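pls read this protein.

:::
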Amino acid sequence: MFNVAKATIATATLIALAGCVEETGSTAPPGLPMVGSATDVTSFEGARAGQAEGGLRALGYEAVRTQGLTTWWFNRATGACAQIRTADGRYADVTMLSAEDC
């Protein structure tokens, strides 16, 4: 009887949580950042630079220019450009720019 009660509670919990899923309308393929996409990587702000660099490359970005602690990343497939300033080993500021700025 105890196992049946636990199973019933677990099932009820799952059903209740299923109603909490928010539909974002996003059609982004799996593997993209939860916030952002291959054309908006502002969600990388605050990330450790070494780890985030791999994420940017996985999304199709390549570093095209560097000036001091600022690097411009360009995604040729989407035409997206990101200006990323690094401070203390983290991406301190991520700004999306027009393709012409890369």
Q: What stands out?
A: DSSP finds two helices and four strands in the chain. The beta strands are 61-67, 70-75, 80-87, 90-97. The two ends are 66 Å apart (CA to CA). Residues 1-35 have pLDDT under 50 and may be disordered.
